[in-house]
Design a protein that fits this description.
Oligo-1,6-glucosidase, domain 2; TIM Barrel; binds 1-O-alpha-D-glucopyranosyl-D-fructose; 8-stranded parallel β-sheet; 16 helices; 18 strands; 3 domains
Length: about 525
């Protein structure tokens, strides 16, 4: 494996997630847009990533901020239009970067013309494009399924006397992928964007897209307790991860492969053994990369991370390329979760593990969780389940570019507040500072590009003192060692260093200082 020379761009490279509402506003409405992203491409290029994933940019009533799509083949007017998209795509490609769109196949918006037609009557030609069921014998919902955002997953439609299924908001009715016409229409939507030149898709909640025939009740989760999300009361045994969903992923893959060098990333939350199945087989592959969220989900200590990394690596099929995610528009900010000192160690870990890393906008500045005043909370998941600390707005705040009004993001008050430290924590300030998080990210990404051992080399965990994670990356004659001190006391460095990069400054001699990570030859 280590001496393969044929690694495609999505194995060798790194992905940067842009949340379009919060990247750059170009028209003074407080919400980011496509022309704004185009204006800020210098930042993305200078960072040294290889591909941009854009969270949804399609027409949407924004009940779930774009994850409620009202037209799979258009552009939301807040963000621009198809001409603006084509300009952005050309500008991104001109810099040698790739573009992934966010495909949302599990559900549409309830404002999508398909749903409007489906809902119009029981006999509508598109009735079966969504999931309609008769009430249970007591008139209640057809089964016990719970929406990921709380409450029943079924919404009653009085006009037709049936319920429709929504795994998320009631404004996000689930599509029926068992219907061949619906499936064909959705694959056509993928073709529409492939034909326009996009390099792939991140596919939203892919493991949700088919439900068990007969809609049996989901079993209770014995580990649930009050205070965690209501969704977790039940194990989503019959509502997710069905064999038919894997078959559809294989069809999506065949479509992507017919266009050549494209990539599909599946958003999939499952234990290792079931997660790995989403790679499919070499003969019938599914997604190229099932997103791996374990750096987000696990406790931040060396022993836990070591076990997690070993188990994940061991779970991969021989043809499966690993990947790592450390932040997203759904997850708490890494700098808040592990603290700013460890966030530097986390950056080094993310960018030196074996597999494709995905960075989330703003993490390269070390932005923390932003407190959102109650009257400015917009996240529907939090509004439906207040007080249990799941607010996603805190990670969705606008990019701070410089010290000008509204951080250069907009000319008006942005849709969500800025990070309170934006006058000093912004791109322009960090660019000038050799010790900043941004400088560290740029150095790490440059090193990854310069050293095939980091980008595509073999991976091996090594023995390490307590609280320290040590591993090697090897490619051809090159062998690099990475040592990460996950604690706030200094530790012996378990090898003679020839340090290529330290998360601290200046370089150490023989010890690993508190909260330090080093890459060494
Ligand atoms: O997220 C799916 C998902 O699993 C989330 O419900 C996640 O568990 C939660 O946000 C964590 O707090 C995807 C999108 O990334 C998310 O933004 C959408 O709201 C959701 O799908 C519905 O499309």
């Amino acid at each position: 494996m280590s001496n393969r020379t044929d690694h495609p761009w999505w194995e060798r490279g790194t992905i940067y997630q842009i949340y379009p509402r919060s990247f750059q506003d170009s028209d003074g409405d407080g919400v980011g847009d496509l022309a704004g992203i185009e204006r800020r491409l210098d930042h993305v290029a200078a960072l040294g990533v290889d591909a941009i994933w854009l969270s949804p940019i399609f027409p949407s009533p924004m009940a779930d901020f774009g994850y409620d799509v009202a037209d799979y083949c258009g552009i939301e007017p807040l963000f621009g239009d198809l001409a603006a998209f084509d300009r952005l795509l050309t500008a991104i490609h001109a810099r040698g970067l790739k573009v992934l769109l966010d495909f949302v196949p599990n559900h549409s918006s309830d404002q999508h013309p398909w749903f409007v037609e489906s809902r119009a009557s029981r006999h509508s030609a598109k009735r079966d494009w969504y999931i309609w069921r008769d009430p249970a014998s007591d008139g209640g919902p057809p089964n016990n399924w719970i929406s990921d955002f709380g409450g029943s997953a079924w919404e009653y439609d009085a006009a037709s006397g049936q319920y429709y299924l929504h795994a998320f908001l009631r404004q996000q009715p689930d599509l029926n992928w068992r219907n061949p016409e619906l499936k064909a229409a959705m694959l056509d939507a993928m073709r529409f964007w492939f034909d326009r030149g996009v390099d792939g898709f991140r596919i939203d909640v892919l493991w949700h897209i088919v439900k068990a025939e007969g809609f049996p009740d989901n079993p209770p989760n014995p580990y649930w307790r009050p205070g965690i999300t209501e969704r977790d009361r039940l194990i989503q045994q019959h509502s997710t991860d069905q064999p038919e969903a894997h078959a559809i992923a294989a069809e999506m893959r065949a479509l992507a492969d017919s266009y050549g060098d494209r990539v599909l990333i599946g958003e999939i939350f499952l234990p290792n053994d079931r997660h790995a199945r989403w790679y499919g087989t070499p003969e019938r592959p599914q997604v190229h990369l099932p997103f791996n969220f374990q750096l987000i989900e696990n406790a931040w200590d060396a022993a836990t991370l070591r076990d997690m990394i070993a188990a994940y690596e061991a779970s991969l099929p021989p043809h499966g390329w690993p990947n790592w995610v450390i932040g997203s528009h759904d997850a708490p900010r890494i700098a808040a979760r592990v603290g700013e000192a460890q966030a530097r160690v986390a950056a080094m870990l993310l960018l030196t593990l074996r597999g494709t890393p995905t960075l989330y906008q703003g993490d390269e500045l070390g932005i923390g969780q932003v407190d959102i005043p109650a009257d400015r909370i917009r996240d529907p998941q939090e509004l439906r389940q207040p007080g249990i600390g799941i607010g996603r707005d805190r990670s969705r705040t606008p990019m701070p570019w410089d010290a000008s009004p509204f951080a250069g993001f907009s000319t008006v008050e942005p849709w969500l507040p800025l990070n309170p430290d934006w006058p000093t924590r912004n791109v322009a300030a960090q660019e000038q500072d050799p010790r900043s998080m941004l400088t560290l990210y740029r150095r790490l990404l440059a090193l990854r590009r310069a050293h095939p051992a980091l980008a595509v080399g073999d991976f091996r965990l090594l023995d390490a003192p307590d609280g320290v994670l040590v591993y090697e990356r090897r490619h051809g004659d090159e062998r690099l060692r990475i040592a990460l001190n996950l604690t706030d006391s200094s530790k012996p460095l378990p090898f003679a260093p020839e340090v290529l990069l330290s998360t601290l400054d200046p370089a150490p001699d023989g010890v690993l200082r508190a909260n330090e990570g080093v890459i060494s030859r």
